[in-house]
Write a structure and sequence with these properties.
Radius of gyration: 23 Å
Strand content: 15-25%
Helix content: 40-55%
Structural class: alpha/beta
Distance between the termini: 26 Å
Number of helices: 14
Length: about 375
């Protein structure tokens, strides 16, 4: 007899089927194989004591600070841990409990019902000459050549923008932005390239977005996070998907000492409010993509926290996009120029995909296609 420790099993049901477990037991056992952790902020002290005992009674656990049992403070931060089966039991058990535990139960139910989406690669094309990575700058025919190469390399989506959003970038007039992107849109439409890949317009300017949508684009990548109702209206009119990104400040100001009391809470609250706004204007949730905005008004610690906890944002039922390609956060971890950051980019993006991201926005399509293929094989 031999024994060895298994690594992370992504597809629990497949592993059990391979072992020839009886079909009736596969679903039951798979739930016991998945360990989940939830951070609960500002839980009322009586609720913490009740939840602690309820968790222990079924074999789960609630980590609480010292002093909870004596009710020294009105609220505490806690970590709830257990298997998927434990969380299913608690999501029913706490419905009958007071002190806000009914809300906890309903939130747990949402997390247990998250959707899984296939991973897609989004290639980046910049129709301007001042984006932070020179290797992404193209104009007209050169841009089309690069688009075709990206599609050949495995890009599912091509994201095209004409205004830099790098830290400190100046604003550009709507007329200038349209003049830059129009030739690219015209060739895409004329050659019907939208039949070979999905096209996304990286803009929050209504006239530019409308022109792109008329040219066969079907995604709006809005770094202002649906702040303009006109952009939402365009998404509804064209039945396009809208990517809502979180950004603190503007590209001109966003990296001037960004501060958060809790970056996860703030970004999550932002998405909740913007999704409600979009749905109120007629955009269906299935057409909403969420982007936490790596590097957009965030210090390194904020970026790392968002990547490590990216699975949280799946609770909204939307696809989650990650875009850390060659960004300065890599330099803050390992000193490097923009041109030297492909290894760091791949490390971040692979971890983000493991943690729930389904759209990877990147400059290096072929390299990401290979890395993701290898990741899928290992999982």
């Amino acid at each position: 007899m031999k024994i060895y420790q298994l690594g992370h099993i992504t597809d629990k049901k497949a592993a059990l089927k391979a072992l020839n477990v009886e079909s009736g037991g596969i679903s039951i056992m798979a739930k016991k194989m998945e360990l989940l952790h939830f951070f609960i902020k500002d839980l009322k002290t009586p609720a913490a004591n009740i939840l602690k005992q309820d968790a222990l009674s079924i074999g789960a656990e609630l980590a609480v600070p010292g002093g909870v049992i004596l009710c020294e403070k009105p609220t505490y931060d806690c970590i709830l841990m257990g298997t998927r089966k434990h969380m299913e039991l608690l999501s029913k058990k706490e419905l009958a409990q007071p002190f806000g535990l009914k809300t906890i139960a309903m939130e747990l139910k949402k997390f247990l019902a998250v959707k899984t989406y296939p991973t897609q690669i989004m290639g980046v094309i910049n129709a301007n000459d001042d984006s932070f990575f020179s290797g992404s700058r193209f104009k007209a025919e050169d841009a089309i050549k690069q688009i075709k190469e990206m599609i050949e390399s495995g890009a599912d989506i091509i994201d095209i923008g004409a205004v830099s959003s790098r830290p400190g970038a100046d604003e550009v007039s709507a007329e200038e932005e349209l003049a830059r992107i129009k030739p690219v849109c015209d060739i895409i439409k004329a050659e019907k390239l939208y039949k070979k890949a999905t096209f996304s317009v990286d803009s929050y300017t209504p006239d530019v977005v409308a022109y792109a949508l008329d040219s066969g684009f079907t995604i709006i990548n809005d770094i202002t996070g649906a702040s303009d109702d006109a952009i939402i209206d365009l998404a509804v009119k064209y039945d396009a998907r809208l990517c809502i990104m979180h950004m603190k400040g503007t590209p001109k100001t966003m990296q001037k000492d960004p501060y958060y009391d809790d970056v996860m809470v703030e970004v999550s609250d932002f998405f909740e409010a913007r999704i409600a706004k979009c749905e109120g204007l007629g955009l269906v949730r299935e057409n909403i993509i969420l982007d936490v905005g790596i590097g957009f008004g965030k210090a390194l610690e904020h970026n790392l926290t968002l990547i490590k906890n990216m699975a949280h944002f799946k609770v909204f039922g939307c696809e989650v996009l990650v875009g850390a390609s060659r960004k300065s956060m890599i330099n803050k971890i390992s000193t490097s120029t923009t041109e030297e950051r492909l290894p760091g980019t791949l490390a971040i993006h692979l971890k983000a995909v493991e943690n729930g991201a389904s759209i990877v926005r990147c400059h290096d399509v072929a390299e990401h296609q290979q890395a993701l293929a290898v990741l899928r094989a290992m999982l």
